[in-house]
Design a protein that fits this description.
heterodimer, A: mainly alpha, two-stranded antiparallel sheet, 19 helices, B: mainly alpha, two-stranded antiparallel ribbon, globular
Chain lengths: 494, 502
């Protein structure tokens, strides 16, 4: 059925993006922070519009795209990320840039890409949505084209991204060859009744797809682009990259692996488990050596991806009930991770706007000169490390507990907890700069602009709220993953 | 609302009042140092009062194992969680009532000891109360999620507390302590995942898990495999040899009141965790591993005392003597006999107040002298008589002189050990003799002898330190002479522990 109303939220976001760009074209001297606030309002409208689909029966657009609670969850999350990023960019971009329309427009477009990745139930649609997101990010990373580091990051990201896309497409074509379908349901049926000689091809196809999506979420060893892209991008974009692209990647992975590949779990689950182990150990070990905040966060977020991949492995090992439990815990963890990351970057951006420093050493004595920002950064880092009162503790505990898969994956969870222990070491080293040293001479207290201050404070409260009382988000996540595991016959195909 | 519920709110207040202090202090401007002190002092007085109330009002004859119970559903029927999945579930038994009392005493005394702190005292007290909220929460939690939540919460602020306000190699001490303690938590995480998964009840409720531990849900093999995860995980915090190495360094670096709380209360969290998670969830595992624990505890007791003999820094001596005394605690637990376990819990209290007093006194000296090397001193008794008297009493309690708390506790432990593992009882007595040696060494070098003229201007303890000190001294003497006040409360709790006999 062609129900065009399903995309009303995206019409708002994409239309808003065009409008933001158009306004600046018509009136080039418009204040950039007004564009930022307009973007934030559009994102808000987008998120609110998405809420109208809560609790409705899943609706499908010709089997290509499905709007259900899962889609709604990621639409709202995406809108939230765009909202916060726009607000964080207001001062940052306003002070550094004469042209900003594309910047804000692309934030919204990338958000649409994420929503469609969560909604897609057909491989080519999923691929196109992924590319919409990726291309927006390529441009955003290289937005300061005269800055060599920014251009280099963007180029590296594009080249490696293109390679990953090719890998993914090759996998998709093999799957189409084996099953004769690109629809997730069709693939599941096709794989179940595949000819006996195609096992090797299936394995290759699954691995290629895994490599492709692994690249997009920067799982090790497909992570090479991430540190450079994170470092080269401007700070709000680094925040955007490490939240939106990861959340979107996992939305796609969850939909794809539960919808199409679940019955062939034995073929891919060991690969996902090893990918998870390599990613979390490697990411956290390399992060120890970093001296630049953005680079360090890049590796730390690679480590986080490793933890999240455990859930995908657990889906492969457990039955549907266990898979659903693990997926809802993953969604909870993603929300906590997004809130912590955004809080961290909000504080770091506020500090950077004033001091121009984003190295670890530059944070020297922050607890004296800017205690509020120091508190927020400390809270987010503790949240990453999984210490209580902050989101990371509860979300990690539930996620790992849900992923034990009847004890089969206890070893992997042991690895995860151990690497989270490693991560604490370098988080403490950041805290050492912030808390233990006196500020450099001449640094004095300064006031954070009210808008940035409030965004930071709200994000910090969100981190504490999710950590102390995760029930509301957890329940929403639980509702959101139900459609993933209840599908099959009741939704009409093409 | 029944009386029991009202008491439940009293238990809750021990966790919430410190948190309220944290939030209040966040909004007090940093330059109002006096306001910060008063807010902390009031908080300290309130939690002290509530702790005393909980201990006194604890009924020795009660129908349920836990009283003053409060239970609020927190998360249920979501994902893998079923009915009562996670609940804020607080309750008191004899062991936690005593530990709560200890926390109240030490927390209040620590607040007074930190009164003269000038440098960023707002930040200090925010972290201090965060830590204590975690301590109380751990002692009173009957839900595994919140148990671990509060346990970790008590560890979180330590890095900054020691790193910013500490002394002597503070960065090293802070990093080592935090990493080792969190390393222990790693094992606890794994143990928790395994236990909750194996029980498969969809709940983190500790009573439900304890029941599963006894009705055969956990196979003997499973129990034997996972008991070490809890025993070592919590044991790190309890300075279980050979995982004790953070303790001397950490105590040496920490500021006075953090040392007090850390050695006085936090180390007890570890031993408490071994009881709650190890012995109560995995009784068969405990039975299997306890001989090993006895060996390690004995090594810790003897090793700590030996090392204390050779140290010159007053705080290092106390740090190693803590290792030795926590060795006694572990020995008491390892007997798995009523009298031994009772002794272990008594020793947790006794060592807590005693070591807090010692660190308070060392802090009072160090603030004036800026050195803790015992060779620098001599004849201090002439200029600081009260200080010396208090230290001598603490030292005698340390050695186990009758009439003081150390005797009460060690008597129980030694009897329990002789009943179960006679040879180790001999080692324990040997360690106590070593304790006498290192205490007398301090007395001889630091207090007596000719007064080093460098110290003729030292002032005796301040009024605030006298208040804090008498509180701690009073507890030492009280436990030394009125045993039944403590043992009556402990008896039902210890008897109800699975696997504890005799």
């Amino acid at each position: 059925m062609r129900d065009y109303t399903l995309f009303i939220p995206e019409y708002i976001a994409a239309g808003g993006a065009v409008a933001v760009i158009a306004v600046e074209l018509i009136w080039p001297r418009v204040r950039k922070d007004i564009l930022a606030y307009a973007t934030a309002i559009i994102a808000l409208a987008w998120g609110v519009a998405a809420l109208f689909w809560i609790g409705k029966d899943p609706l499908s657009f010709q089997g290509l795209v499905q709007v259900d609670d899962f889609t709604t969850f990621f639409r709202v999350l995406g809108a939230g990320i765009v909202f916060v990023t726009a607000l964080l960019s207001a001062q940052f971009i306003g002070e550094r840039s004469k042209v900003a329309g594309e910047y804000f427009g692309l934030l919204l477009i990338a958000g649409c890409g994420m929503a469609m990745m969560a909604a897609a139930r057909e491989l080519l649609t999923a691929y196109l949505s992924l590319e919409v997101l990726s291309f927006s990010l390529y441009i955003l990373v290289g937005f300061y084209k005269r800055d060599k580091r920014s251009s280099e990051a963007s180029l590296k990201y594009i080249l490696l991204g293109a390679f990953a896309s090719a890998t993914l497409l090759y996998g998709i074509s093999l799957i189409y060859g084996i099953t004769g379908s690109t629809y997730y349901d069709g693939i599941a049926d096709g794989l179940a009744s595949r000819a006996s000689g195609t096992d090797a091809a299936t394995l290759v196809a699954l691995m290629l797809v895994l490599a492709g999506v692994g690249f997009k979420v920067s799982a090790m060893p497909f992570h090479m682009w991430a540190p450079d892209a994170y470092q080269g991008a401007s700070m709000p974009i680094t925040a955007f990259l490490s939240t939106l692209s990861k959340a979107a990647g996992f939305a796609l992975i969850l939909r794809l692996f539960t919808g199409a590949f679940l019955d062939d779990a034995e073929e891919w689950r060991w690969a996902v488990a090893s990918l998870a182990a390599i990613t979390m150990v490697g990411g956290n070990l390399i992060a120890i050596q970093q001296t630049d905040l953005k680079r360090l966060i890049a590796y730390s977020s690679i480590g986080q991806v490793g933890y999240m991949l455990i859930v995908i492995a657990a889906i492969g090992w457990g039955d549907e009930l266990a898979g659903q439990a693990a997926s809802s815990a993953l969604l909870l963890h993603i929300v906590g991770y997004v809130a912590s990351t955004l809080a961290l970057f909000a504080a770091a951006i506020a500090y950077f706007n004033r001091t121009g420093k984003d190295s670890l050493e530059g944070m020297r004595g922050m607890a004296e000169t800017q205690p509020f920002l120091a508190l927020v950064i400390t809270a987010s880092l503790f949240s990453f490390a999984g210490l209580p009162l902050f989101a990371g503790f509860a979300t990690k505990l539930f996620m790992f507990q849900a992923s034990t898969a009847g004890g089969d994956l206890l070893w992997l969870i042991g690895v995860a907890v151990a690497s989270s222990f490693i991560s604490l070491f370098y988080y403490l080293r950041i805290m050492r700069w912030i808390w233990l040293f006196d500020p450099v001479a001449g640094m004095t207290r300064f006031r954070v602009p009210p808008m940035l201050w409030s965004v930071t404070a709200v994000l910090m409260l969100a981190v504490v709220f999710i950590g102390a009382y995760p029930a509301p988000v957890f329940e929403a996540a639980d509702e959101a993953v139900k459609p993933l595991f209840q599908l099959g016959a009741d939704i009409a195909g093409p | 609302m029944t009386f029991d519920e009202i008491q439940g709110y009293a238990v809750l207040s021990t966790v919430v009042v410190p948190l309220i202090a944290v939030v209040t202090l966040l909004f007090v401007p940093g330059q109002y140092k006096q306001a910060v002190r008063w807010i902390s002092a009031i908080t300290g007085a309130v939690v002290f009062g509530v702790s005393v109330y909980l201990f006194v009002a604890f009924q020795t004859e009660y129908s349920e194992p836990y009283q003053m119970v409060l239970r609020w559903p927190w998360i249920e029927n979501v994902s893998f969680l079923g009915e009562n999945g996670v609940s804020l579930y607080l309750g008191v038994d004899g062991i936690s009532a005593l530990m709560g009392l200890l926390t109240g005493i030490v927390a209040f005394a620590g607040t007074l000891a930190a009164w003269k702190l000038e440098y960023r005292n707002k930040d200090f007290f925010i972290l201090y109360w965060l830590l204590l909220s975690g301590v109380y929460g751990t002692f009173f939690s009957l839900d595994l999620f919140f148990f671990f939540f509060f346990y970790e919460l008590a560890v979180v602020p330590l890095y900054i507390l020691i790193g910013v306000w500490g002394s002597t190699r503070k960065e090293y001490g802070a990093m080592k302590l935090t990493m080792m303690l969190v390393g222990g938590s790693v094992l606890m995480w794994i143990g928790i995942f395994a236990v909750v998964q194996e029980a498969n009840l969809g709940t983190f409720s500790l009573p439900a898990l304890w029941e599963a531990g006894q009705d055969g849900t956990f196979s003997p093999g499973f129990q034997k495999t996972f008991f070490p995860f809890f025993a070592i995980g919590c044991g790190v915090l309890a300075a279980l040899w050979p995982f004790h190495t953070w303790s001397p360094d950490g105590h040496m670096s920490a500021p006075t009141s953090v040392s007090m709380v850390h050695a006085g209360v936090l180390m007890k969290l570890g031993a408490f965790g071994i009881i709650r998670l190890g012995i109560q969830i995995l009784p068969e595992g405990a039975e299997f591993w306890m001989p090993t624990m006895m060996v390690l505890g004995t090594i810790g007791a003897v090793y700590g005392a030996t090392a204390a003999l050779t140290q010159r820094d007053l705080k290092l001596i106390s740090g190693y003597s803590s290792v030795s005394h926590m060795g006694y605690v572990l020995m008491g637990l390892a007997t798995l006999s009523t009298i031994g376990v009772t002794g272990a819990v008594l020793q947790m209290f006794s060592h807590g107040v005693m070591t807090a007093l010692v660190f308070l006194l060392i802090g009072a000296l160090y603030d004036q002298a800026h050195t803790r090397d015992i060779r620098d001193f001599g004849g201090i008794a002439r200029v600081m008589p009260l200080w010396v008297i208090a230290y001598v009493i603490a030292g005698f309690a340390n050695v186990g002189l009758p009439g003081l708390s150390g005797f009460t506790a060690e008597f129980h432990i030694f009897v329990g050990t002789f009943q179960t593992y006679p040879i180790f009882g001999g080692f324990a007595i040997f360690a106590a003799a070593l304790a006498a040696a290192y205490m007398i060494r301090i007395f001889a070098i630091v207090y007596w002898g000719p007064l080093n003229p460098r110290w003729k201007d030292l002032k005796d303890v301040t009024p605030l330190e006298i208040i804090a000190g008498s509180l701690l001294l009073g507890s030492i003497v009280l436990m030394g002479i009125w045993w039944s006040l403590f043992t009556d409360r402990l008896e039902p709790a210890v008897l109800s522990l699975p696997g504890v006999t005799g």
